[in-house]
Amino acid sequence: MPVAVVVGTQWGDEGKAKVIDLLAGKHSHVVRYQGGHNAGHTVVVGDQRYALQLVPSGVLYDSVTPVIGNGVVVDLPTLFKEVDELQRRGVSCERLRVSSLAQLIFPWHQMHDALAESALGDAKIGTTLKGIGPAYADKALRVGIRAGDVRDPKRFAMLVRERGTSANTLITALGGAAFNVEDVVAQFSELGARLLPYIADTVNLLHDALEAGNNILLEGAQATFLDIDHGTYPFVTSSNPTAGGACAGTGIGPRDITRVVGIAKAYTTRVGSGPFPTELIGELGDAIVDIGHEFGTVTGRRRRPGWLDLVMLRHAVRLNSLSELALTKLDVLDTFDTVRVCTGYMVDGKPLSGYPDDIELLGKVTATYVDMPGWKQPLRACRSFAEMPEAARRVVELVEQHIGIPVSIVGVGPERDDCVLRA
Length: 423
Ligand code: GDP
Ligand code: IMO
Ligand code: MG
Fold this sequence. Notes:
By secondary structure, the chain is an alpha/beta fold.
């Protein structure tokens, strides 16, 4: 099992970090491959809760080298805030490595993100306002500044000054306030010096680790339906969270990947705008939000709740070559009389054959459901499939039947050990 990928199969916050933490102990490296500090990854160990945005979720293991891959966009103030907080809590970040090829986020990217969102008015995407889209846009325009550029401090300062000056023109043209470029140069010169010891040629580092017989875990942020190509465009993020993005974002080729673990909540949530066929508005949705604590780790926004959607999951199996699924937060549905699961979409009274390539159409579909009886008892203490109540097992089996891959992990609570592992 040299390389495993963990990928979200819905619209994010599926519990990826908890599963990564669970699997990390058997891997030498845990590598983030895309996104940036728009991610909010929560790991709970005993009474300690760690909310990670940039540092890979494997950091809690001394045996793991956490790596920020080349596909990530890195906000240095956030990175060091996170590193300082982890070290304060006794988690060493000395092993952390940042790809020299990773793009850096600058304050003007955040300003641009906010100005673009407010210009969209009601049509806004509902981004995290972290500057993710503008940073990836600069990468595509080939005017981005990369982590490795800090190796030459004079040239780095020159690049920040140059890009900062042209960004200032853009920001003021968009109606924003001009910023002091020299302040940014000074701030980032300091941050750049601090970054220096963490920078590495992570592509060769990872391949050397593989050749030495190690296993590597690639940590996806965001999710399949936030993917810039395959998600509900334009209500998506600006990278490729799908498993293919793991190759581009780390420099590891597809033949080295032997395991792709999709993560799905036992219901669905979405933060920000965009179509959502199984969305639940009303009391049941409020109950899911309350019981599941469905508020964003990064922005604190209430997540939109809905039922589990197997049309989406089937499509996620295709897009990511999923080998297995982890079904998380099944315990959140413990008190429900009925658990609904969407197994199809209808448009104008006719069934759709699969997940549509048109978000206008997705916005119009009516979800069709199978109603499953609830189990009405806590799942949290369950540690084997046999211990789970039959009604809960039936939901898991329904998912397997519809998506054609095994559910290998069932989440029954937020803590590291709150899992049912199926052989
Ligand atoms: P990620 O972005 O996919 O890593 O997920 P988040 O960390 O943003 O959100 C998932 C939330 O659910 C976190 O607060 C986790 O601690 C919590 N969680 C994960 N798995 C389970 C589970 O099986 N049951 C319960 N009750 N909570 C879970
Ligand atoms: P994790 O890794 C949930 C959403 C935003 C917005 C859209 C674009 O914790 O699952 P962006 O700031 O990326 O340009 O915003 O994507 N979004 C997420 N939603 N979980 C995330 O990360 C997200 N990262 C971005 O809400 O709709
Ligand atoms: Mg999250």
